Amino acid sequence: MTEIRTFRVLLILLMSLIAACAAAPVQEMSNARQAISAARSAGADLRAPDALKKAEGLLKNAEEDLSVGEYTKARNKAAAARDLAMKARNEAQPTQ
Fold first, then answer.
1. DSSP state of 24
2. DSSP state letters, 27-88
3. What pTM value is reported for the model?
4. Who's near 37: CB < 8 A, 6+ residues apart?
5. Residue 23 phi/psi, 5° resolution?
6. Total structural domains in the chain?
7. Of 33, 35, 94, 95, which sits most exposed with the smallest number of CB within 10 A?
8. 41-80 residues labelled b (16+ CB within 10 A) or e (exposed)
């Protein structure tokens, strides 16, 4: 009896994990957009243009992947865009 219960719990967890991976990366896309916006506000277009342009390019690629249902690729590219945008923002901020 407990083996069946354990199996059911594991099956439910596995199904939840699969469903989470299959969902559109809405939050990741939003995070990337916000990070790019923050980088622009910090002056990255002037002080860290290369990193900002790469972040914008990755976000554009993520949007293209999203439009054709490539959610995993879109998620990964959005996360990379967010990271690059954060790097650009940090480079753009004046050192104290």
1. -
2. HHHHHHHHHHHHHHHTTHHHHSHHHHHHHHHHHHHHHHHHHTT-HHHHHHHHHHHHHHHHHH
3. 0.77
4. none
5. -75, 150
6. 1
7. 95
8. ebbbeebbeebbebbbebbebbbebbeeeebebbbbbbbb
Q: Residue range 58-80: average pLDDT?
A: 96
One-letter amino acid for residue 81 of the chain: A
Residue 13: pLDDT band with limits 50, 70, 90: confident
Contacts for 7 with CB less than 8 Å, ≥ 6 apart: none
Q: Identify the domain containing residue 9 by its residue range.
A: 2-92
19-65 pLDDT per residue, tens: 555 688 999 999 999 999 999 999 999 999 999 999 999 999 999 99
Residue appearing with tokens 């990193």: 51
Total residues found in the chain within this entry: 96
Per the structure block, which two tokens stand in for 12? 């439910």
Predicted pLDDT of residue 95? 72
